[in-house]
Fold this sequence. Notes:
Layout: H1 4-18, H2 23-49, H3 59-78, H4 85-91
Helix pairs in contact: 1-2, 2-3
Amino acid sequence: MVINVPLAYIFSLPFSLIDQRLFLPGFILGYWLSNLLGFLMLHWGGENLIRQHRTPVSIRRSLIISTLYSIIIIIFVLLEWLSPPTEMLKRFQ
């Protein structure tokens, strides 16, 4: 969450500038894309580190964890604990 949430937040900025209702879908899309990239990087790094013993990546487990985190993010946005970047920019003006 330390890496993926800020990346997803930055990813959602252009969407929220178009329309604030696009913040949540943009955030979720950015979060899933950053998760996918992270899982691929972990897989490739681990594969290069240990070439003799390759363990398969559990896509099902990764999808379950990503779904749970996505639900948490949706709840945070709906409860307004996490606001669109445009709202944050208004506070600094």
